Amino acid sequence: MIPRVLARPLRGLARSYPVVTVTGPRQSGKTTLCRAAFPRKPYASLEAPDVRAFAAEDPRAFLAQYPAGAVLDEVQRVPDLLSYIQALVDARPGPGQFILTGSANFALLASVSQSLAGRTALLNLLPLGFEEVRRFGPVPHDLDEVLWRGSFPAVFDRALDPADWYSGYVGTYLERDVRTLLAVGDLMAFQTFLRLAAGRVGQLVNLSSLGADAGVTHNTARSWLSVLEASYVAWRLPPYHANVSKRLIRTPKLHFLDSGLVCFLLGIRSAGDLRHHPLRGPIFECWVMSEILKHRVHRGLQPALSFFQDRKGHEVDVLVDRGASTLAVEAKSGRTLASDFFQGLEMFDTVSRTASPGRRLERRLVYGGAERQRRSGVEVLPWSAIDKVDW
User: How many CB atoms within 10 Å of residue 172?
Assistant: First the structure.
């Protein structure tokens, strides 16, 4: 077990709120984190059928076992329990009583917002950030190895073969979460949809095209993509909405939270296979985006991410709203710096002056090479130093 970045904001919020709820994908380490952060609290998993039945059939007796609170795992399995937790914390106010975890995002959040509004803080635990991967030992020097391995804790903690682990992960996810969140009648069609979505990583979301290729309707594709987001498999990066031009793209981009999962879904079974794969660039972009997202989320910050693209094809991969400033970031998988790597950042410098006069703009390029430098006002960052800067 390694210390997680989210541990500090988790303990901090537990000193202010009676309940803290931690959500995130399965196998991201929520249980390990919460039990390590609160080792003296009793623990109960609502995944266990007998525990779940007890909590559902007699919630008052179940909670009476924990007069000082507890860590309760996978609480979305018994959503009615949250109303009884509400009554308890209202009757005996005090911080840090219950630490709740859950994997099914919209099912859990719907229950939390209804029962625990104002009583719980919400945190998300995503797979390992690169700084956390380092804590397991020396990281590979090869970028393709890093992208292919992904960032789920089990792959590193148990030194598992990524292809074998992701096979089991996808199978478990399909059998449990998808059928729990949404009635999927044609499992094969959904598997096809999942692979096609992985093939569109880093692209603008086109539900009509995605659905047609998977053999399902536009509405079904929309519903299935929502399930991928709710289960923390995929996420949509929203477009930049400054009122500078009506020619800006208004469609979000599709990203996955884990590059290793993308590689598995695309049939990439080794780092060598990835080296010459036509989607290596978008997979690298996906990795950079997810590292920025994890850096912020694991510190308890709002993501505040968007991307810029106009109808002439000018684009910046991600914009980070940092309050007093904007950070514009480009991701390029090439190992050798080229002048066209900087074009989007240079163009956005002009756009930013018009859209937000007086607002400070910082520009950063993350690339597949090894040298760190500054060029034309742009900080050039090698991929291996992505965890060495503030996002």
Answer: 12
CB proximity list for 184: less than 8 A, separation 6 or greater? 178, 190, 224
Q: What element of type H or E holds 22?
A: strand 19-23
Question: pLDDT digit string (tens) for 126-144?
Answer: 999 999 999 999 888 999 9
> Which three-class secondary structure state does DSSP give residue 42?
coil
pLDDT, tens digit (0-9, with 9 covering 90-100), for 143-192: 999 999 999 999 999 889 999 999 999 988 766 676 666 666 667 888 89
Residue 388 and residue 391: Cα distance in Å, rounded? 10
d(CA 264, CA 256): 12
Which CATH class for the 7-124 domain?
alpha beta
Closest listed residue to residue 78, CA positions, set 98, 61, 58:
58
Q: What is the DSSP letter of 25?
A: -
* Tokens of residue 308, six digits: 């810029």
Dihedral sign from CA coordinates of 12, 79, 302, 149? positive
Exposure letters 100-127 (e unless 16+ CB within 10 A, then b): bbbbbbebbbebbeebbeebbbbbbbbb
Question: Which residue type occupies 223?
Answer: S
Let me know: does 181 contact 230? Beta carbons within 8 Å: yes
Using CB atoms within 10 A of its CB, is residue 356 exposed (0-12), middle (13-18) or buried (19+)?
middle
pLDDT tens digits along 98-110 = 999 988 665 666 6
Backbone angles phi, psi at 60, to 5 degrees: -65, -45
Q: What angle do CA 196, 24, 194 make, to 5 degrees?
A: 10
For 54, 59, 296, the CA distances from 48, given in Å and listed in that order, are 10, 15, 33
Tell how far CA 25 is from the center of its chain: 8
Greater confidence, 341 or 191?
341
Portions of the chain given CATH number 3.40.50.300 = 7-124
Cα angle, residue 166 at apex, residues 161 and 167 outer, rounded to 5°: 100
Crossing angle of helices 218-230 and 187-199, in 10° steps, is 80
SS3 270: coil
What is d(CA 391, CA 366) in angstroms, rounded to the nearest whole number?
12
